[in-house]
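At this stage, I put together one protein's amino acid sequence and its backbone structure tokens, which the following lines show:
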Amino acid sequence: MRYNWWTSMRSGGEKPKVTRQLLLRVLSYARGYWWHIAGMLAAILLTTGLSLLTPLIFRNMIDVAIPAKDTNRLILLALALLGIPALEGVINVFQRRLNAVVGEGVIYDLRSSLFARLQQMSLRFFTNTRVGELMSRLNNDVIGAQTAISNTIVNIVTNLIETAALALVMLALEWRLTLISVMILPLFALAARRLSLVLREIAHRSMELNAQMNAHMNETLNIGGSLLVKLFGRAHAEEKRFRERAASVRDIGIKRAVVSSTFYVFFGLVSAVGTALVYGLGGHYVITDVFTVGTIVAFGSYLGQIYGALQGLVSAPAEFASSMVSFERVFEILDLPQDILEKENAGELRDVKGELEFDRVTFNYRMDDALLLREVKRYGRMDTVDAALSLADNKKDKPALRQTPENAPDLGEADPTSQARAVALEQISFRARPGQLVALVGPSGAGKTTMTYLIPRLYDPTDGVIRIDGHNLRDLTLDSLSSAIGMVTQETYLFHDTIRTNLTYAKLDATQAEIESAARAANIHNFIVELPDGYDTIVGERGYRLSGGEKQRVALARVILKDPRILVLDEATSSLDSESESLIQDALKRVMAGRTSIVIAHRLSTILAADLILVMDRGKIVERGTHEQLLALSGLYAQLYETQFRRERG
């Protein structure tokens, strides 16, 4: 088997592709730090030069000062031995500061670029990408990429300069001993590469086993998992299973420690061979008066330094390749094409009246893989474990499937009541005039939510045109479009922050009077002021400290504060108590007054108030009209009315 510099990366499933273009792009991130890098280079040269002086001082002490009993020279040389480390320490602190400025600066630049790029990606991208993978790119890969510039490259340069300087001094000092010490380098390099590969594979296996153990703990020690274990009486079984996982972690840890120790023992032996040869032959030369004792002492000191530098150079290619992989993953995000693009000459949507038109709109959720991140094997991550309990490999011989809402393969002879289909929306056409209320009704999965997502350009139609006040959405700036549209989704999302911060997210400069006015309109003000901290109350992650009705009213207040001309909302009231539902219904009347409203209707009162009802089934509008007109058709709407809505009237 051939071992080369990228072989050690192979167990990670990726071959680093260190191309000229990649290197130039990597170096472009160092462009703003050239003076700092130049300072680091100067510091490296100074410390390397100083490190060369110490053995020469020892040589002078042994060969000149001590034999001559020159006390003054001896004191000066001793002070030099004290001064050189002190000076090196000052220079190292200065170099470390420069290194930190470059490293942290590169992290800042990369993270800022990545975050800005991700903000430009469409909702389709996020529905097909794990949050954990994005976090890894923003954290682990950014730090790995930073390591290439601030650590790996610096270490390579340092070791190269140190090796070259030491080799020149050693040759000048004694060329025969230099040749002898170089003779063992091939053995040194071969051992380093082979043992590095073994250690890397053991390290990866260790991280995999730790991930399996952590995944098991994560599944069984949370409240849901713990409840299930107790209900089914599986405590002893899970204890046994955990012992097996923990034993595997223990065993691989022992193996890793033994192999690691063997690794360093071997390096020590290889270095000892060189040292023994140098001192053995050097001792012979001292006995035969070829050179002095001081020369062999100085040479031995240089020998330890050059072996250390060479060890760093041997491991540098693998480290550099790992850093390049991190850069490739970062660049992959930066180079992803945008799904939702804003034209260069896009116009501002001004003086919005609120006329909304769908013109033969078709849409499907299928996404080109070129717009998605490639799958990465990340060792030690719990989400890489295929099955947390059984450890079964669920991915073997199975094609990758991307889950998307309302998108399922067409399996030929389909159940007529099923909403599974290949195309989410097909030939949708309707017009909502300014101030009108349009209600969307239909079975679950018929395409209602998908249609509402197209209005604020969370997705773009596959075919057809959507217009506001006669303007194609693709011709408008995204910011002006966002300002004109307010949306309340079925799953209300609140940030883990105060009520005030969640409300002012709609209008950052909102005054307290405006905040309270919006809250009153949403029937939530009285509740907020009764809280211990009022508007400064923390709502918890995703607003979990609030009830469902309270979260929805906060979301409505947020939309009211935004004051959009077009309102899109999912009237989700099925899980609320009667009091919360009544408060929300009252708030909705105020919110929709005077606005063009597109509502996924779950309430008969909304349907009866609608100027236009669109009945959807399998991604198509199958019926349209008012309540009375649709009942007269005796079609799908009449069925829905009998099964879902009529009981409200009774």
In short: The domain at 19-173+320-337 is CATH 1.20.1560.10 (ABC transporter transmembrane region fold). The CA atoms of residues 78 and 86 lie 13 Å apart. Strands lie at 356-363, 425-432, 437-441, 463-468, 471-472, 485-488, 566-570, 596-600, 612-617, 620-625.
